[in-house]
Amino acid sequence: MAAGATEAGHVCEYRERAEALEEKVAALARELDALKRQVFGHKSEKMPRIQDELRDGRAPDPEDVKQKRRERRMAREKLANVTTLHRVPDERRRCPKCGCDKLRELGDGKECTVFEYVPAHFIAHRHVRETLSCPCGEYVVTADVPQKWTEKSHYSPSFIAHLVTAKCADSIPLYRLEKEYQRIDVPVSRSTMTDLFHRCAELLAPLAARLVALVGEADLVHADETPEKVLAKGHCRVGYIWTFRAWLPEPVIAYRFADSRSGETPRQVLGGTKGALVVDGYTGYNSVTDVDGRTRVGCHAHLRRGFFDALPTAPEAQVALDLIRDLYRVEHEAFELKVVGTSKHLELRKLKSAPVRDQLKSWLDEEKGKHLPKSAIGEAIRYALNQWERLGHFLNDARIPLDNNPAEAALRTVALGRKNFMFVGHNAAGDNLAGLYSLVATCEANGVNPVAYLEDVLMRVNTHPASRIDELLPHRWGGPPGPPT
After folding, report:
1. Per-residue pLDDT for 29 more than 80?
2. Per the structure, how many domains does the chain have?
3. Tens of pLDDT, residues 362-407
4. Which of 197, 284, 408, 443: disulfide with 450, CB 3.0–4.6 Å?
5. What is the H or E stretch that residue 309 is in?
6. Residue 346 domain-assigned (yes or no)
7. Is the separation of the CB atoms in 436 and 208 below 8 Å?
């Protein structure tokens, strides 16, 4: 029966108004609950670790504990060692029993190790170029100019590498770096650091662009976006930083800055490419996932989030949360068996995950008519049903993950930076920030020290052959070249 209609076919105006009001109240209740949780409650959606549940109170594997201890010990052994000999004072170098003062050493002495913090420091490196002249007065020769990463710069690549890593990896704004440098007597102004940051980004822009191109060639790509304020006349407007993450098989993370959240950025990065794209339900990705485009894969983390948000007002949402958790238990089992991404992983999914999905679908169909469309659980159910086909692609390809968490993780640094930096000055600054984010994040994803990487590449990028640019990318970088043989 249509909304507001009676059995006799009469449309009741008051009933229609009551139902509309009821939906509006439900929507307001959902918004209020979200705001209260945002202000007063726990924001984390983290679940208890599945491995802890499966362990069922048993102690961790002793071999895992020993391995972690070995790794920490090896890391400590790499530290620079300083040895200080503490001598016995003269007044204690005589035996109180017999009065003998001919004490001899007993072994190598007792040792203890104390880990100390040595503050970072900068040096002023003077380069003096030898100049020679011939007595005849017709010939003068001067030593070569030391190579610089850019012309007329008084700051070395190591300084620039530290500056970029502090901002792009640790989200430290330049005004805080300015204070830190002042504490160690290095008077570098914020404007100078800003100029150096952007000059570095412009020099390394071809490398960042190459990372974007490589992401477009990958079979499986994760994507997400987040707002970034841009300074404008009298106010701040909203731009967006997009992230695209892929495995080649090494992990590669590329960021792009854009004026808007339109589908133009995904089209520029992934347009005309094939494969799978793991994203949330945002329609901006439709431009690359329509007919003849990439296969769009849904995200179970976003699916879960809706039911998690609905839990305070709809306890029955726990059923969906438990079923989604069962899907992740299967993924954890595949990880434990070391079969992730293989045919055995796909068999495991078909055997155990497919029945769980069937249970979830039955529950969704049963519950969808019991809740107001604008309520929190009503919205969660609608999202689940609209994304149902996209959420099921993991049953056809073992390489497809359950969620888009890798892309969301790649945006955490951006989100923290947005809080600390507050805004970027203009579009070109946004492009530069995104480019350096790409290089630093890809370094960290591959276990490469971004300071060492940037220090080396800044000196080589101008003279390196363009046809071999991939050699300078973070996931291909093997360290600075050795001496010629």
Report:
1. no
2. 1
3. 999 999 888 888 888 999 999 999 999 999 999 999 999 999 999 9
4. 443
5. helix 300-310
6. yes
7. yes
Residues of the domain holding 339: 299-403
Residues 6+ apart with CB under 8 A from 239: 227, 228, 229, 230, 257, 258, 259, 260, 424, 427, 430
| pLDDT tens for each residue of 64-109 | 777 777 777 777 777 778 888 888 888 888 888 888 888 888 888 8
On whether the CB atoms of residues 304 and 286 are closer than 8 A, the answer is: no
In a domain, 313, yes or no: yes
Helix axis angle, 190-216 to 427-445, nearest 10°: 70
CA–CA dist 279, 299 (Å, integer) = 6
Burial 141-177 (b: 16+ CB within 10 A, else e): eeeeeeeebeeeeebbbbbbbbbbbbbbbebbebeeb
Q: Is the bond into 373 cis (omega within 30 degrees of 0)?
A: no
The residue type of 277 is L
Q: What would the two tokens of residue 114 be?
A: 């104390």
Whether 342 is in a domain gets the answer yes
227 phi and psi, to 5 degrees? -70, 150
Q: Is residue 397 part of a domain?
A: yes
**d(C-alpha 423, C-alpha 173), whole Å:** 11
The β-bridge partners of 241 are 226, 257
In 40-61, where does DSSP find H-type helix?
A: 50-55
Count other Cβ atoms within 10 Å, centred on residue 311: 17
